[in-house]
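An instance noted here:
***
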Amino acid sequence: MSTNYFTDKHALDIPWIESPFFYDILEKDTTLTQEQKDICVQYHEKGYLVIDLELTDEQIAPVVTDMYTALEDQSTKYHADHFTYSDSRRIFEHWRKSKAIAELTVHPKVLDTLSFLYDKEPFPFSTINFIKGSNQPLHSDIMHFHTVPALWMVGVWVALEDVDETNGSLNIVPGSHKWPLYEYHNLNLPHPDEIENGEAVNYAKYEQFLIDLVKAKKAEKYTVKLKKGQALIWAANILHGGCNVEGVTDFTKTRLTQANHYFFKGCSKHYHPMFSRPLEGQYAAKWCNDDNNIKTFLQNS
């Protein structure tokens, strides 16, 4: 029997939401509500969407408390210095110590939204907590974590207070999720282990490449504004980074937020592109898989 690319969400190995047959599949889909279909269209075209998790102060408070407690804990893990662009360090993978942070990754509305967008079961595998704005340049998450097959990864950024350009929200480049995928080998960069201070050197060149790419594409950045309790969902390849508007953004203000990252079940590999050699079939595996992730951690704890 021949494959029907106009109706089968899994005819290609990429997510159906990224498929060139997206509109045909959507038109014939009888499982989604009209509201869900509208959400799918925006996500397909723009690469992002905002949902309201309707978090209460009682739900947010323990997350924020654990974030500040982490700053006093000498064992807290932070992002490396070459991924730090302000005087506020980013709290990395604190879900291992904070139940509140871990539970925010499995919020039902997030999991339900990701499930109908991708028609596969998502699982969280990483958290980053921010006290203040990051000021991080534009980047794509597929440089940090990716999958085989490609594009089965999503970022979700939850506002624990109102965020906008005054306290360093996020900039995104709408539509950039449709651009080609770039890893270090595409930029003719060596494996970071082959050069001195390779991780920092390569990443700086990658950031400059993206500045030039956005300029060449004549693309425009969009500053996301979220109300407390809302969440921004973005596709794997969309360019995003910290907001810094000269004379407007105040990095002394807090920007209490949590970024979660998700893979989807059924991938053959979940890997770290920076340290992989995909053209040689060598992949630096991430720690997680379908049966070992933040969701299963919570279930077993």
Observations:
- DSSP finds seven helices and eleven strands in the chain.
- The two ends are 46 Å apart (CA to CA).
- Helices lie at 22-28, 34-46, 57-71, 99-104, 108-118, 198-217, 294-300.
- The domain at 16-300 is CATH 2.60.120.620 (Jelly Rolls).
